[in-house]
Design brief:
Number of helices: 15
Oligomer: single chain
CATH topology of the largest domain: Nucleotidyltransferase, domain 5
Largest sheet: 5 strands, mixed
Number of domains: 3
Distance between the termini: 21 Å
Strand order of the largest sheet: 6-5-4-7-10
Radius of gyration: 23 Å
CATH class of the largest domain: Alpha Beta
Helix content: 40-55%
């Protein structure tokens, strides 16, 4: 993509501000840019004329005429977000601001190997686009969240502990070649955190940490509004904080990691063993005597019916999760921690009290004093929408560049 020329820098900066803060008034843009009211008004008119921005109605009045609010034109193009898990894939087609137009959930089939699974995933993306009425020509980008360990420079999965066949798989390249659009790839916790930041409760909380508890566990850390990735891009491996030195073996080779004790797969394994050994009668009745039918949702249902084993299992999981959260609290002193993922979605009301109790007991009082901990309010579609937002800024810049290259429209 051609570089943005210097005369257009200010216009692009204003467009980005509207994107991140919309709906926003011209007077608010004056405060955020430091530009004069005349210049901001002139630039906003130019963005409207280029059909990059549209007026979306009146804002709140502080006396006098209500301000007119501005938002990004939702018709600038379409994005696809793909959240690839070890069991399921979630796909969302959105507009450039992440508003959902279609959603599809299906089996990811990653256990069948990269070649078969990627062909399957591409066909599901095409089906979701068809449901949304989006043609290839309107697609501006694809964002992919995946649970494996990534080489972010190339968009390659280096390895995937739960799915050992996925070694050095060029996921980004394969999607780029097939759809011929910009593709960005990131690990699942970070795409889920981006969805929480832009679509959920996180807003402008700073520092903000997203903890995911699902098939695996992880985290994403926002410092001063930006995602902190670390020197090598591996910051946020929350699942491999040791919380019980004598605990079970983890996929990383250590013992007692958060993931080995809290992940959905760990809880399901313990529940199945308990049912097989006759230690969880109520859960045995719910699964009709078949341990293979046990899921996190079934464990949560049993807990809701006061099954003692299931209640204890989730309470212990919350305690282990809380010990890991204590390390995050003491290190980063966050304003907000949001816990999301499949386990949190199903059993958050049972996990949260234990997490909060452990943090109160073990974290530094000064670090935990203003801390808020909450379960994510987003459903599974938010994970795919977060993936779509990986490419939203690049898509916005592309739309701007196209408007700049239209010769009859002068630059500001």
């Amino acid at each position: 993509m051609p570089k943005i020329q210097r005369p257009h820098f200010r216009l692009l900066r204003l467009l980005r501000l509207i994107y991140f803060h919309s709906p926003v008034s011209r007077s608010e843009l004056v405060e955020k840019t430091g530009y004069s009211a005349f210049l901001v008004s002139k630039m906003c008119d130019e963005l409207i004329r280029r059909k990059l921005v549209c007026e979306t109605g009146p804002g709140n009045s502080t006396g006098g005429r209500p301000p007119t609010l501005l938002s990004i034109n939702p018709d600038l193009g379409r994005l696809v977000g793909v959240h690839i898990g070890t069991v399921n894939v979630r796909i969302a087609v959105t507009d450039i601001s992440g508003n959902m137009l279609a959603y599809l959930k299906g089996p990811s089939k990653v256990e069948s190997g990269p070649e078969a699974a990627l062909g399957h995933l591409i066909s599901l993306v095409q089906e979701c686009m068809r449901q949304a009425g989006v043609t290839r020509s309107r697609l501006r980008g694809i964002g992919i969240g995946i649970s494996g360990v990534l080489d972010r420079a190339t968009g390659t999965t280096m390895f995937w502990p739960k799915v050992p066949q996925w070694v050095n798989v060029p996921v980004k390249q394969i999607f780029s070649q097939h759809f011929e659009v910009a593709v960005e790839i990131e690990d699942s916790p970070r795409t889920m955190a981006l969805g929480e930041r832009r679509l959920g409760e996180a807003g402008r909380a700073d520092p903000f940490i997203y903890v995911t508890a699902g098939a695996g566990t992880g985290s994403a850390i926002f410092l001063k509004g930006a995602l902190f990735t670390g020197a090598g891009g591996f910051a946020g491996e929350f699942g491999h904080i040791t919380v019980d030195a004598n605990g079970p073996l983890c996929s990383c080779g250590n013992r007692g990691c958060v993931e080995a004790l809290v992940s959905a797969s760990a809880l399901i394994r313990r529940a199945r063993n308990a049912v097989a050994e006759g230690l969880a009668i109520d859960l045995w009745q719910l699964c009709q005597g078949d341990p293979a039918r046990i899921t996190v949702e079934l464990i949560t249902q049993a807990a809701s019916q006061n099954d003692r084993f299931s209640l204890n299992l989730l309470e212990q999981a919350g305690e282990h999760l809380g010990r890991g959260v204590v390390a995050l609290v003491n290190l980063f002193n966050p304003e907000l921690i949001v816990i999301g993922g499949g386990l949190a979605l199903a059993a958050g009301k049972f996990l949260l009290p234990s997490v909060e109790r452990v943090v109160r007991e073990r974290a530094l009082v000064q670090a935990a004093g203003q801390l808020r901990i909450q379960i994510s309010s987003l459903d599974e579609s938010g994970w795919a929408r977060g993936a779509a937002l990986l490419v939203s800024e690049k898509a916005l810049e592309l739309a701007f560049q196209e408007s700049v290259e239209t010769p009859e429209v002068p630059a500001v």
